[in-house]
Amino acid sequence: MALVPMVEYDAAPPAVRAVYDDIRATRKTDYINNFWKVLAHDPAMLARTWANVKEVMGPGAIDPLVKELIYVAVSVTNNCEYCIHTHTAAARAKGMTEAQFRELIAVVALASQTNRIAIGYQIDVDERFREPLA
Amino acid sequence: MALVPMVEYDAAPPAVRAVYDDIRATRKTDYINNFWKVLAHDPAMLARTWANVKEVMGPGAIDPLVKELIYVAVSVTNNCEYCIHTHTAAARAKGMTEAQFRELIAVVALASQTNRIAIGYQIDVDERFREPLA
Amino acid sequence: MALVPMVEYDAAPPAVRAVYDDIRATRKTDYINNFWKVLAHDPAMLARTWANVKEVMGPGAIDPLVKELIYVAVSVTNNCEYCIHTHTAAARAKGMTEAQFRELIAVVALASQTNRIAIGYQIDVDERFREPLA
Amino acid sequence: MALVPMVEYDAAPPAVRAVYDDIRATRKTDYINNFWKVLAHDPAMLARTWANVKEVMGPGAIDPLVKELIYVAVSVTNNCEYCIHTHTAAARAKGMTEAQFRELIAVVALASQTNRIAIGYQIDVDERFREPLA
Amino acid sequence: MALVPMVEYDAAPPAVRAVYDDIRATRKTDYINNFWKVLAHDPAMLARTWANVKEVMGPGAIDPLVKELIYVAVSVTNNCEYCIHTHTAAARAKGMTEAQFRELIAVVALASQTNRIAIGYQIDVDERFREPLA
Amino acid sequence: MALVPMVEYDAAPPAVRAVYDDIRATRKTDYINNFWKVLAHDPAMLARTWANVKEVMGPGAIDPLVKELIYVAVSVTNNCEYCIHTHTAAARAKGMTEAQFRELIAVVALASQTNRIAIGYQIDVDERFREPLA
Questions:
Q1: Which chain A residue shows the shortest CA-CA distance from F74?
Q2: Helix (H, G, I), strand (E, B) or coil at C8
Q3: Residue E60 and residue F102 in contact, taking contact as beta carbons nearer than 8 Å
Q4: Number of neighbours of residue B28 by Cβ within 10 angstroms
Q5: Residue F134: pLDDT above 60?
Q6: Mutate which of F101, F110, F113, F114 to test chain A, going by most A C-beta atoms within 10 A?
Q7: Model confidence pLDDT, tens digit, residues F25-39
C-alpha cells in the first residue's frame, strides 16, 4: 500500500481538481491514475509534475509512441514496477504492437548487456566518438 | 585505459577476423570500435555478442533509428559513458536530429523523475494496468 | 517470503540475543525488525551490521532526523522496498512531518532528473568545482 | 567533452538570457554552471528545469542545507560525477562542514549496504511498517 | 502478473518446443521456468537467450557454482526479484551451503558500501591499478 | 581529483596509523590504497570500514578468490570505476586468470541482460522458487 493515501476528486481542493480536469481533457479519459491521486497531497508538485509530463510527452521532434517506448525502456532500467505497468499500457493504447513490445525488451536487454561489458572492461571511448556536434 | 589491451585486425586470429569482416560489411565502414577490439580476447564472446547485436538491431518491428534512441536511453540510465558516446554517434549517423536528441534526453530525465516518485511513495499499480494482453 | 527463515528471540543463541537486547535498549522498543531476525542466521554479520548502524546513525555532526531523510533518499534511489518502508516509519517516529516527506520525495525526484540530464549530455565538471577543499 | 557545445550568454537568445539572469539573481553570483549552458540548446527544457530547481530547492518544509545533502546523497547513489561535484560545492557554500560531509558519505554507504542485504534476502516488510499515515 | 501470458509446451510451435526440449535435457528436469515460457512469445529471442545462457553458464574457466554465485550477486545489485529467487535456487541445487549464501550476501553488501564511498568521495584510481595486463 | 585530500602515513594521527599498519600487515604490502588515505579523514569510519573488509574478505565459507570475483561483479554492476580497477587487480593478485576475467565479465553481462528481461516483462516468480530453505 502506498505510503500516503490517495486524494479522490470529490475530496480534492480546487487546485487539485484543476489538474485532474486537465489530465482528463488532455488524455480524453475520466480515469485518473493512482500516481496523480498520491501526488495530489502536494498540489504544487502535482501541478509541476503534470506540466512537465504534458510538455515533454506532447507533440515535438519525436513521435508520441516512440516517446512511450523510451519511457518504458527507462522504467525497466530503473526497475519501476508502477511505471512499467502504466507506460506499457500507454504505449499499447498509442498503437504499440506485441511484436514491438518484444523487440523493445530485446533492445533494453541487449543494451544492458553491452553496457556492462563496456563498464566491466573499462573500455576507452574511441576518439572519433568524443567530438561534440559542430 | 581498458583492463585488457585491444586486438588489432592484423594480429587477430581467423575467428576474430571473420567477425571484424562481418562488422565492416554490415556497417559499411572500415572502422572497428574499441568495444569489439577488447572483446576479441574472448572470440566466443565476440562472436556471440556481435550475433546478438546484429540480430536485435537489424530489421524488425521497430524502426532502426528508434532502436538507437532506446539504446541511448538505456545507456544513459545505466550510466555507461562508452555506450552513450558510441550510440549517440550511431543515432546521429542514422538521422537523429539535434532536436530529437534533446527531446530524448528530456524524456529520459522525465521518466527518471517520475520513476523515483512512484518508488518513493510506493504507489500501487492500478488494477486496470495489471492485466496482461489477451 | 524471505529466502531464509527468521530467528525469534526465544530460539536465538546468546550472541544473537545480546544484539537483540542492545537493539531494544538503544531504540527503546521491544520490537525487533524482520531485518535483524533474518540477519541473525549469521551472528557475526548481525553484530557487525548493527554496530555499523548504531555508530553511523548515532549522535554526530548531522541531526538524527536528517540522517533518516538521507537514508530514505538513498533507499528510494536504490529501489529497496523494505528500506523505504522501515526508514520512512523511522523518520516519522523521529518527527518528519508529511510536508517534509513530500518535499523529500520532490528533492529525490529532482536530483534523479538532473542526474540523468548531466549524464545524458556527458556534461563536463566545471573547473571551479573540481578542486578539493584546502 | 559534452555531446553538445555550450551556449554562452552573449550568444544566447532572449529566452535563454532571461533564465541566465534569473539564475544569477537567485544565486547571487555571475557564474552560470556548465549544466545550464548545455541545457540552453533547448530553451523550453532550460526554463522548465530551472523552474523545477528553483521551486523544489527554495524555501519549504526542509532546511536548504539539508536539501543539498539529500541531493548529494541521491547523486552519489546514481553515480553522477557532475552532480556530485556541483552539489557538494553547493552544500559547502551553504555551510556543510567537512565533518558533515564525511558523515553524509557514511550514511549513504550504510544505506547502500543494508539496502542490498534486504534485497538479497528478499526480506518481507514488517506488517507494522506497511500502513500508510492516517 | 506478467505483461504477456505464458506459452505452455503443448501450445508451443516447433521452434519453441525444440528450445524447451534442450532446456530439459541440459538441466535434467522436466520443469520449464516461467522465464522461458514468457520469452517463448518471441521464438528468436528465446533461442538466442537460451543459447547465451547455455554457453556462458556451461563448462569454462570458472566453476559452475561460482558462476551462479556471481549471477546472484549481479541480480541482487540490479534488484531483480525474479532472478534472485531462481538463481538462489539454482545455486543451492549446485551445492551452495547456507553459510556460503550468507557470506555471498555479506560480500555484496560490503562491495555496495565501499562502491558508494569511492564514488561519493570521487577517489582517484591509484596509478598502479590503471595499467592493463601485459 | 578526490573531494578531500589524502592523508599520508607521516601526517596521520595514531589511530589512523594503527589501521594503516594493520592493512600493511594483513595484505603483506607497504602500499596503502588511495581509498584508505581518503577515508582517513574520518578515523572512526576508516577503522570501521577496514574491520568490515577484513572480516568479510577473510577466511570463511567462500574461497578468497571467489569473493574477489563477486566483488568485481558488484562493482561493475554499480559502475564504480575505482572499485573495478582495484578489485580486478586484487583478483589477479589472488590468481584470477585472464580467461576467468573474461568469463566473469560474460556472466555479469548475461545476468544484466536476463535481469532486464525478467523486469521488463514483470515475470512472476515460479511458486517452487518462493519457498525458503527449511
A1: A120
A2: coil
A3: no
A4: 6
A5: no
A6: F113
A7: 999 999 999 999 999
**A130 reaches D (C-beta below 8 A):** yes
Q: How close F92 gets to chain D, by Cα (Å)?
A: 25
**Helix, strand, coil content of chain F in percent (nearest 5):** 70, 0, 30
Partner-chain contact D129 C85, CB within 8 Å: yes
**Range of lowest pLDDT (B31-45, E21-35, F23-37, F118-132):** F118-132
DSSP helix/strand/coil, B98: helix
Cell of B9: 585486425
B79 touching chain C per CB within 8 A: yes
Contacts of F71 (CB under 8 A, 6+ apart): E107, E110, E111, F57, F83, F87, F90, F91
Distance between CA B82 and CA F76 in Å, rounded? 14
Going by C-alpha positions, the residue among E129, E131, C133 that lies closest to residue F32 is E129
From F82, which residue of chain E is nearest by alpha-carbon distance? Answer: E125
Q: Distance (Å, rounded) from C-alpha A23 to C-alpha A36?
A: 9
Q: How far apart are CA C124 and CA F103, in angstroms?
A: 34
DSSP code per residue over A5-31: ----GGG--HHHHHHHHHHHHHHT-S-
Q: Does the interface predicted TM-score (ipTM) exceed 0.90? A: yes
> What is the Cα–Cα distance from A22 to A17, expressed in whole angstroms?
8
Give the integer Cα–Cα distance in Å for B52 and A111.
10
Task: Identify the closest residue of chain A to C116 by CA–CA distance.
Answer: A74
The residue among F55, E93, F115, E84 whose CA lies nearest residue D117 is E84
Shortest CB distance from C106 goes to which of A3, A45, A80? A45
- Shortest CA gap F19–chain D (Å): 18
Alpha helices in E2-132 (DSSP H): 14-27, 34-39, 43-57, 64-78, 81-93, 98-120
Residues of F in contact with A114 (CB under 8 A): 109
User: Residue A116 and residue A120: Cα distance in Å, rounded?
Assistant: 6
Residue E10 identity: D
Subunits with at least 3 CB pairs below 8 A relative to chain F?
A: A, B, C, D, E
Residues 6+ apart with CB under 8 A from E47: E15, E19
- Say how many CA atoms lie within 13 Å of B114 toward its Cβ: 31
- Chain F segment 42-71 residues within 8 A of C by beta carbon are 44, 48, 51-52, 55
Sign of CA dihedral C45, C48, C49, C50: positive
How near does any CA of chain B get to the CA of A89, in Å?
6
Cα gap C105→B26, rounded to integer Å: 47
**Neighbouring C-beta atoms of residue D13, cutoff 10 Å:** 10
Q: Which of E4, E7, E41, E48 is the best substitution to test chain B (most B C-beta atoms within 10 A)?
A: E48
Query: F11: which DSSP letter?
Result: G
D81–E116: do the CB atoms touch at under 8 Å?
Answer: no
In chain D, % of residues over pLDDT 90? 95
C-alpha cell, D53: 530547481
Mean pLDDT of all residues in E79-84: 98
pTM for the full predicted model: 0.97
What CA–CA distance (Å, rounded) separates F93 from F89? 6
Nearest to D106 by CA among E116, A1, B108: E116
Q: Which of F42, F45, F79 sits opposite D79 (nearest CB)?
A: F79
Query: What's the CA gap between E121 and C129, in Å, rounded?
Result: 13
The size of chain B, in residues, is 134
Whether F53 and F39 have beta carbons less than 8 Å apart is answered as no
Please indicate whether, in this complex, the C-beta atoms of D114 and E116 are within 8 angstroms of each other.
no
Which contacts (CB < 8 Å, 24+ apart) does range A53-61 have? Answer: A53/B110, A53/B114, A54/A22, A54/A26, A55/D44, A55/D48, A56/B103, A56/B106, A56/B107, A56/B110, A57/B107, A57/B110, A60/B99, A60/B103, A61/B97, A61/B99, A61/B100, A61/B102, A61/B103
Contact B121 A2 (CB under 8 A): yes
Interchain CB distance below 8 Å, B3 and F85: yes
d(CA E98, CA E118): 30
